[in-house]
């Protein structure tokens, strides 16, 4: 009888300890799950975001933006590259206002300070009021931007010293090529403020992407999701080219991939 009772006691003790171990394992697993870092977007840092935008077609970025936001965020066709180029970077914005005949030697200092304060991977975005025939920038400013690691520049206005900029290899998109100067004609009106460039509102820090198709502005808060969708669009489109060549039908390709 004693041995039988002892056996029962051992069994109950074993069950108790097994249950305790199972409970500890469950609680420990739950704690570990809570302690694990949350999954992050592959574009959660600025470097990976720009790397992605530098490899995706600007047309796909434009389509993705319009699909996600319902807005067209591409600049007017008048904003053209001075040589075939592509870039992506974060906007450093500058506004110039007309001030004809001013003799203030510091009237344009702010646009130069914006360059010297700009970090690498910036895109200099300048809106020049009624500036179709005024050069908002030239070789000196382009040289400074290149030295600081800027990605490029977009000028809603003119650009000059184009031969030097091409030699330097610094990409600039502008609404015209003119030999004029902004000195004595314009005044700096602010930097890192919202500006309208090429018909699109650009905020400081927005992602600006450009290639042979034009310039698109991506609000920073939507950049990761826009890039994800643009990459998906790119993949479909690039898959369609060999499909069209093989079956000699664009209708069949669009039906197969759902991209046009």
What does this structure look like?
- The chain has 260 residues and is of the alpha/beta class.
- It has three domains: 1-36; 74-218, 3-Layer(bba) Sandwich (Glucose Oxidase, domain 1), CATH 3.50.30.40; 228-257, no CATH class.
- It contains eight helices and eleven strands.
- Strands 1, 2, 3, 4, 5, 6, 7, 10 and 11 form a nine-stranded mixed sheet that branches.
CATH homologous superfamily classification of the largest domain: Ribonuclease E inhibitor RraA/RraA-like
Whole-number tally of structural domains: 3
SSE succession: HHHEEHEEHEHEEEEEEHH
Largest sheet geometry: 9 strands, mixed
What's the Cα radius of gyration?
A: 29 Å
Instruction: Indicate the proportion of strand residues.
Output: 15-25%
Q: In total, how many beta strands?
A: 11
> So what's the overall shape?
elongated
The CATH topology of the largest domain turns out to be Glucose Oxidase, domain 1
CATH class bucket of the largest domain: Alpha Beta
Q: Helical content, roughly?
A: 40-55%
Determine the structural class based on helices, strands and strand pairing.
alpha/beta
How many separate helices? 8
CATH architecture group name of the largest domain: 3-Layer(bba) Sandwich
Segments where pLDDT lies below 50 for 5+ residues? Answer: 20-41
């Amino acid at each position: 009888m004693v041995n039988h009772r002892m056996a029962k006691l051992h069994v109950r003790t074993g069950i108790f300890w097994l249950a305790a171990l199972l409970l500890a394992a469950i609680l420990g697993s739950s704690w570990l799950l809570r302690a694990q870092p949350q999954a992050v977007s592959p574009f959660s840092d600025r470097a990976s975001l720009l790397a992605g935008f530098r490899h995706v077609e600007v047309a796909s970025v434009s389509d993705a933006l319009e699909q996600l936001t319902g807005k067209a965020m591409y600049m007017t066709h008048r904003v053209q590259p001075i040589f075939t180029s592509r870039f992506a970077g974060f906007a450093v914005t500058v506004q110039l206002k007309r001030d004809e005949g001013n003799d203030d030697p510091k009237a344009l200092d702010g646009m130069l300070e914006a360059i010297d304060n700009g970090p690498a991977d910036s895109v200099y975005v300048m809106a020049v009021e009624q500036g179709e025939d005024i050069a908002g920038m030239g070789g000196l400013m382009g040289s400074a931007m290149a030295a600081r690691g800027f990605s490029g520049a977009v000028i809603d206005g003119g650009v000059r010293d184009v031969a030097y900029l091409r030699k330097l290899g610094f990409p600039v998109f502008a609404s015209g090529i003119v030999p004029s100067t902004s000195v004595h004609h314009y005044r700096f009106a602010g930097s890192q403020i919202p500006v309208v460039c090429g018909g699109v509102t650009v905020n400081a820090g927005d992602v600006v992407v450009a290639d042979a198709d034009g310039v698109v502005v991506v609000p920073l808060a939507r950049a990761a999701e826009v890039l994800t969708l643009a990459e998906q669009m790119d993949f479909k489109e690039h898959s369609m080219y060999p499909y069209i060549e093989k079956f000699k039908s664009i209708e069949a390709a669009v039906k197969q991939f759902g991209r046009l």
